[in-house]
Specification:
Layout: H1 2-6, E1 14-16, E2 21-22, E3 25-26, H2 32-43, E4 50-52, H3 60-69, E5 74-78, E6 91-95
Parallel strand pairs: 1-4
Antiparallel strand pairs: 2-3, 5-6
Length: about 110
């Protein structure tokens, strides 16, 4: 995909997954579900260059299986009720151990 951008085969698209400020108001204390709703509203007028990373509540296992089939790196799991917590991990990155591009990046795939 990066090659498409690099060689001008496709216009760049910004993928947004959260919003921290809405109309000048700090919304970090709101649950993720409410921040996602605000993000959808904010992105409505910019559909040509912004895409939203939507969730699939209750379908995490199926999503991960599809990601693995497509040889993608993994998924991120978040709770819809959680506020944004800077400096504190409130989400999980679930990595595809068979991801073909993990060469020389094995430290990302080791358990701690």
């Amino acid at each position: 995909m990066f090659a498409h951008l690099m060689f001008g085969r496709r216009p760049p698209i910004f993928v947004a997954f959260d919003v921290l400020v809405d109309r000048g108001e700090d919304v970090r204390t709101l649950p993720l579900a409410r921040r996602k709703a605000a993000l959808k509203r904010l992105a409505r007028g910019a559909k040509r260059w912004i895409a939203l990373a939507d969730g699939v509540p209750g379908q995490g296992r199926r999503l991960f299986d599809l990601v693995a089939e497509m040889d993608l790196e993994g998924i991120v799991a978040k709770r819809l009720v959680d506020p944004y917590a800077p400096g504190r991990t409130t989400w999980w990155k679930i990595l595809n151990r068979s991801y073909s591009q993990k060469v020389r990046r094995s430290e990302l795939f080791e358990r701690t």
